[in-house]
């Protein structure tokens, strides 16, 4: 009888000990909660012993890409343009990513598309008069930097860092593409005539 009690006690102690052991792989982290209270995160890979009976929520710290859909947006001049971007991001604060927003990947997707729409509406697709104006077509680096800055502000609450943004698609919408091509050709003919004169 005594050996059965000792065996049960050892089993309880072993289960208690194993509930405290956690293994974390490379580029992974775990957020630890103890009966609903956040007590910290482990961001390094390896074998760790934590407080027994903690809930461990894994989260990836890998760099990820998000390709936005092709969005139809009105540029600064009111012309409909199609635009898409790729956003490279990673989680840097596990607690914010898990507890400040519902699903941080969906949050990144929605905020990225909203930021692409907002930035595209601030610039003209192309300008035919002002050569120094920043345009979507002529200044993709500046537009990408503006998009990165805006996304960093929007995604800070989710503990996400923006590594890079790039425009992957930029064109006039199909309903005005032909008219804009004719306008570009006319502007080129006028510029050539000015040079000749």
Structural description of this entry:
With 197 residues, the protein is an alpha+beta fold. 42% of the residues lie in helices and 30% in strands. Strands 6, 7, 8 and 9 form a four-stranded antiparallel β-sheet that branches. Strand 7 and strand 8 form a beta hairpin. The longest helix is centred in the C-terminal third of the chain and has 23 residues. The radius of gyration is 27 Å and the shape is rod-shaped.
Helix content: 40-55%
Number of strands: 9
Low-pLDDT residue spans: none
Q: Main sheet?
A: 4 strands, antiparallel
Q: Note the total helix count.
A: 5
Task: Please give the structural blueprint.
Blueprint: H1 2-20, E1 21-24, E2 28-34, E3 37-42, E4 46-49, E5 55-60, E6 64-67, E7 71-74, E8 80-91, H2 94-99, H3 104-122, H4 140-155, E9 160-172, H5 174-196
Antiparallel strand pairs: 1-4, 2-3, 2-5, 6-8, 7-8, 8-9
Helix pairs in contact: 3-4
Can you summarize this structure?
By secondary structure, the chain is an alpha+beta fold.
Key structural traits:
four-stranded antiparallel beta sheet, 197 residues, three-stranded antiparallel beta sheet, alpha+beta
